[in-house]
Amino acid sequence: MRTVYKPYPTNHFTHPGIDCALALRASGVSPEDVEDAELGVAAPVLRTIAEPREDKVRPRSAYHAKFSGPYTVAAALRGGGGLGLSLDDFAALDPDRLALAQRVRCVADERASEIFPRAFAAVLRVRLRDGSTREHRVDSSRGGPEHPLTREELAVKFRANATRALPDDQVTALIAEAGELRTAPSLTPLLNLTVAQPPATAAQP
């Protein structure tokens, strides 16, 4: 029960910020209305996801974007696949997300720093174009013991990854077989489903 699952394909230090951004998006915050945003995180993680600022607000590559607090917040505010952000969302750098990342600054947050490293916490404050402000805080990122993923969410994550290598119907069967693992008399059926099957060949006349 202490296992921590990563719901998003990014550096784990970015996850609480993503959680905050997804929550604000779900509450009705539109990325087009965001004038600027402040992401507060534990002080020790700033060097990983926030520094140097010029590289983090304009990542050098899609891979580098996964280690950027500003870019991942911008991506989550704009919305993505899977459990909120998926691998496909980092296939290439998105101009709209880059533009929004320029308006996100990262700072040390005292509460998040006190909690770290027992859990990864963050607070996201956004100022909207109408002058109002919105805020969301998480004291433990999604996927850990305090906020575990449901069985259905784990299946969504697994399917999104597994279908990159296996046909969808085979992944469905694999998920079902894994669900019966406790009482399965043998691992062979499950292991067979983890191997891509060669395409069927037409019968020779």
Fill in the keyword field for this structure:
2 domains, single chain, 60s Ribosomal Protein L30, Chain: A, 10 helices, elongated, 38% helix, 205 residues, alpha+beta
What would you note in describing this structure?
The chain is of the alpha+beta class. It has two domains: 127 residues, 60s Ribosomal Protein L30, Chain: A (2-Layer Sandwich), CATH 3.30.1330; 31 residues, no CATH class. It has ten helices and four strands; from the N terminus they run αβαααααβαββααα. Strands 2-1-3-4 form a four-stranded mixed β-sheet. Strand 3 and strand 4 form a beta hairpin. The termini are far apart.
Summarize the structure.
With 205 residues, the protein is of the alpha+beta class. Helix content is 38%, strand content 13%.
Q: Name the strands of the widest sheet in spatial order.
A: 2-1-3-4
Number of separate domains = 2
Estimate the global geometry from the Cα principal axes: elongated
CATH architecture of the largest domain: 2-Layer Sandwich
Q: Estimate the helix proportion, in percent.
A: 25-40%
Uncertain residue ranges: none
Largest sheet: 4 strands, mixed
Mean pLDDT level: 95
Give the topology, please.
Layout lengths: L14 H12 L7 E8 L4 H4 L3 H5 L4 H4 L3 H10 L16 H7 L2 E5 L1 H6 L6 E7 L4 E6 L12 H12 L5 H12 L8 H6 L12
Helix pairs in contact: 1-5, 5-6, 8-9
